[in-house]
Amino acid sequence: MTQKKIQQAFTIFGILVFLFNLYELITARLPRGEMAVVILECLAGIALIYLPQLIRKFLKVQLPVTIIYFYWFFLGLSVFLGTCLHLIRFIPGWDKLLHGVSPMLLTALGYGICGLLLKDKSISDVSPWLFLIFGFAFAGVCGVFWEFWEFLCDTVANMNLQRYLDSPDNSGPALIGRAALMDTMGDMFTNTAGALIMGTYAFFKKRKDPLYFEAYRIRLIK
């Protein structure tokens, strides 16, 4: 199946999920305010399917299909399955699954950025540790900034993204001490584990194929 056909199939799936969310809104299966947010996220998810094309058109940056497929996979897990089909609500640990997959995508993106910065230099002439360390560090930094974002949302909007309020409706009481740190530290541990898994996989693939990291190289369109 070609990239275009996969994109079309993914778009059709997104539209079907959107129609399901509209049905939920009309039948009031969930609170209307919550469903309105979910519908907006679903529409945003459908638009984000075409983000690689927009990056190519407006920024003149070509992402490799390896990263694009990985990106679509994560988009499906997080937006359509997790949020719009509510698996994050019904399946314990779905949030941690996303925290494990996202650093794998970010590590791959780190490999791509590293390849971009190397310009036209042959991958086989570069130490694989440059890619492995840069990819791991890139995923780690992005994970830290995500926790900053969650902290900001909790501070400004009381969204309880870091699970420091011990109640379903975010009304309190606030956890203290080690209990208040468990969600954030769990996310950071999962983020690190995901980056390590991706790095270990890439390490062994590189040993078999000297040009392995070429598949991640991001290129500028001239």
SSE topology:
Elements: H1 3-27, H2 32-48, H3 51-59, E1 61-62, H4 65-84, H5 87-90, H6 94-117, H7 128-157, H8 177-208, E2 219-220
Antiparallel strand pairs: 1-2
Unreliable segments (pLDDT under 50, ≥5 consecutive)?
Answer: none
Helix content: over 70%
What is the arithmetic mean of pLDDT?
A: 91
Shape: globular
Brief summary:
It is built from eight helices and two strands, in the order αααβαααααβ. The chain is mainly alpha-helical and 222 residues long. The longest helix has 32 residues, at 177-208.
Descriptive tags:
single chain, 8 helices, mainly alpha, two-stranded antiparallel ribbon, 222 residues
Explained architecture:
It contains 8 helices and 2 strands. The chain is mostly helical and 222 residues long. It has a two-stranded antiparallel sheet with strand order 1-2. The mean pLDDT is 91.
